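Q: What would this chain look like folded?
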Amino acid sequence: MGKRFRTYGWLGLLASVLVTGCDEAPSANRQEDPCAEPLSLRVHVVSSDGARIQGATVTATNLESNVSITGVTDDRGLTTAINENLAPSPIRVVATAGSHVTPAERVEWTCDACHCTPVPAELTLELQD
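A: My prediction, written as structure tokens:
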């Protein structure tokens, strides 16, 4: 009986290891899809004296399709809501806070097989008084 238990004990252990490898748990051998998460444009909104503006609305509009994405700046005056879903056509980016508006900025995209990267990658929009 002892020999049979040792044989089946090892087989049971081996089977449990093999089955465990088939679950959806993270594994060191699994690779993340580098194309899954869209790249974002970093947009800072500041006042005419350079103060960061929280709560400013930033809107990017694709110049060909007229599709828009809107984001709101955080406590650092930053939003990353504008992303490559608007690519590959150029976009126009503008920010508003109350009655203050920034001049529009144009952003182009450089695309490869995986992502479209905004050019420039970061904007600072200054609200006009």
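DSSP finds one helix and nine strands in the chain.
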